[in-house]
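Colleagues,

Please find the record for the two-part complex below.
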Amino acid sequence: MNPIISVSGLTKVYANGHMALRDIHLDIHSGEILALLGPNGAGKTTLISIICGIVNPTQGSVTVNGYDIVRDYRITRSMIGLVPQELTLGSFDTVWNTACFSRGLFGKEPDRAYLQQVLEDLSLWDKRNSAIRTLSGGMKRRVLIAKALSHQPSILFLDEPTAGVDVELRKDMWRLVKGLQESGVTIILTTHYIEEAEEIADRVGVINNSELLVIDDKQALKHKLGKRQMTIELEQPITSIPNSLSGWALELSAAGRQLVYTYDSYSEHTGISGLLNAVNEAGLLLKDVSTSQSSLEDIFISLVRAE
Amino acid sequence: MINVQAIKIIYKYEMLRAWNTIMQSFISPVISTVLYFVVFGSAIGSRIETVEGVSYGAFIVPGLVMLALLTQSVANASFGIYFPRFTGTIYEVLSAPVSFVEILLGYVGAAASKSFIIGMIILATSGFFVDLNILHPFWMLSFLVLTCISFSLLGFIIGLWADNFEKLQLIPMLVITPLVFLGGSFYTIDMLPPVWRTVSLFNPVVYLVSGFRWSFYEVADVSIEISLLMVVLFAVVCLAIVWLIFKTGYRLKH
């Protein structure tokens, strides 16, 4: 499958010498939801800004549907809608006017019916004649989305779409994103919320310190980098791990009442049966056994910390 | 392929913005011009003899129109592009399939149209105070249009260069206003001592006012050809600067 967006060797050094992106290679598949995770200042917004044409790259190239973003900017940009992170809106415009403006800017003929549909989908139709400055933060966020969708893009960038947004609106947005994906739109979103990536993304990329550390299918990422842990609860606390159990990576916790075994559940031999036997032979009485899978959050934290 | 829709929509929304702030956009420049007429034309002018056969009230009309045109063109165009940069809404224009030429046509076109309208309103208003006699209407309109465009270009440059509101006001206040006042709006440069007459010839506004006044009364400080040449030259210089800005993405793209 040809990627809809292909980033290769992308580097950005700002005029003040700050390196925001370092040799980024990234393919985005048509119709997927890709979440870019990373702490503040990692380079996520710079990456999006370059693809959308707001920031000039220092090195490297980006193609959208095979077209170069610099040479064929008219074609690439008309395919892309961008919802910026900041609530940047002309405060005196009305909702309707600003949506019409966005559509016109992208070279599309006015289309009342389509814009009405977009505003209705975003619960903005009742507010169409309101000045933007009178709207709440959440409503302004919706207006930004309406503007980005006004020209019927096939790729949508959402830069921190749910930052500072209440739970209900966040859920609404996830529904919207899923709906857009079903209609064939490719979605790239940046977020701090790992929960968000876990909930809606197909693939997840982690950016830290200007570098793309990893990008993979959400499940594959958990397989590859995630760890499973088995917690063995003991009837009686122990002070040290018996020598006979030294062959397993065990940790003693909960004041000697728990043995925690970290293992790779996808390897051929997890070592669980052997461990349980050995525990038995060591004369330790089991109270309970439980296993857990590390979340995307654990993976993210361990990746970013390892930097 | 030109994105005509985008030019139209930028133009339309810039004009709409002027309409929404009609007091500031159209009424206030007209009021201040009327005040000039009352003070200079009627009160002081009644004690001044004719200037080269033209009554003083009528003599200052072209200068007053130019004064309004220059300040309004610069103010409109600089604010028009500075404000989206300031609020961040420029992201949308930059991420749209719009070339810099189209952005320029939309913003500068709207700013120039606004000052053209203001110029015409002031001209019409002045008809209530003095007898207007326009000997060369074609040249009058040409000077009007060229001035609107070239000073809107200058305003656009200022709006791109400024990175705070103070800088936005700086050039209009410290450069343009003095140039206009010393550019023969209210007098002919023949009235000045020889040294200042020579100095005045370095002021581009002198050529604008002189050419514009010539189209009314055939009274001029410098020949009409030189006036026209200077206005065109000024427009070309501004265009070249804008072209350079767009080529490098200065202040627009990091």
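Chain B has one domain: 4-248.

Comments are welcome before we finalize the supplementary table.
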